[in-house]
Design brief:
- There is one protein chain.
- By secondary structure, the chain is an alpha/beta fold.
- It has one domain: Sugar-phosphate isomerase, RpiB/LacA/LacB (Ribose 5-phosphate Isomerase B, Chain: A, 3-Layer(aba) Sandwich), CATH 3.40.1400.
- Helix content is 46%, strand content 17%.
- It contains six helices and five strands, in the order E-H-E-H-E-H-E-H-E-H-H.
- The chain has a five-stranded parallel sheet with strand order 2-1-3-5-4, with helices on both faces.
- Helix 2 packs across helix 3.
- The longest helix is centred in the N-terminal third of the chain and has 13 residues.
- It starts with a strand and ends with a helix.
């Protein structure tokens, strides 16, 4: 499974922790930036990650900013993306099981690296249940702007 990952300056340090975790757990990934703590615009990086997932270039994505709110809003603008902002592992589990979320958003100012690694692990290893949830995901996907 190939993971797209991106952040703004507020998420840079947490992204570095997640990149190490991905490497240690043998995940293939593409880092879409940013690459330091200089101020940047979060929509640019969230869109890059979302487009990589929507195109099929990557199977899942991870976006990080200070709160996770901005990157989740930006990622969700891309057709085919279901980005979920998660601050705990239960939310990560349920958004995969019931919503088939394909992009994970996290807030570096909200959670620490250990929680972020656990959320990432749960998000990447939990399968979508399908069934009645597939109908609901289909309804989500059919909502037009």
């Amino acid at each position: 499974m190939k993971i797209a990952i991106g952040c703004d300056h507020g998420g840079y340090l947490l992204k570095q922790d997640i990149l190490i975790w991905l490497e240690e757990n043998d995940y293939e990934f593409e880092d879409f930036g940013c690459y330091n703590t200089e101020s940047v615009d979060y929509p640019v990086y969230a869109e890059k990650v979302a487009r990589a997932v929507a195109s099929g270039e990557c199977e899942k994505g991870i976006v990080i900013c200070t709160t996770g709110i901005g990157v989740s809003m930006a990622a969700n603008k891309v057709k085919g993306i279901r980005c979920a902002l998660c601050g705990d592992s239960y939310s990560a589990e349920m958004t995969r099981r019931h919503n088939d979320a394909n992009v994970l958003a996290m807030g570096a100012g909200i959670i620490g690296p250990n929680m972020a690694k656990k959320i990432t692990e749960v998000f990447l290893t939990t399968a979508f249940e399908g069934g009645r949830h597939a109908r609901r995901v289909g309804l989500l996907d059919n909502i037009q702007p």
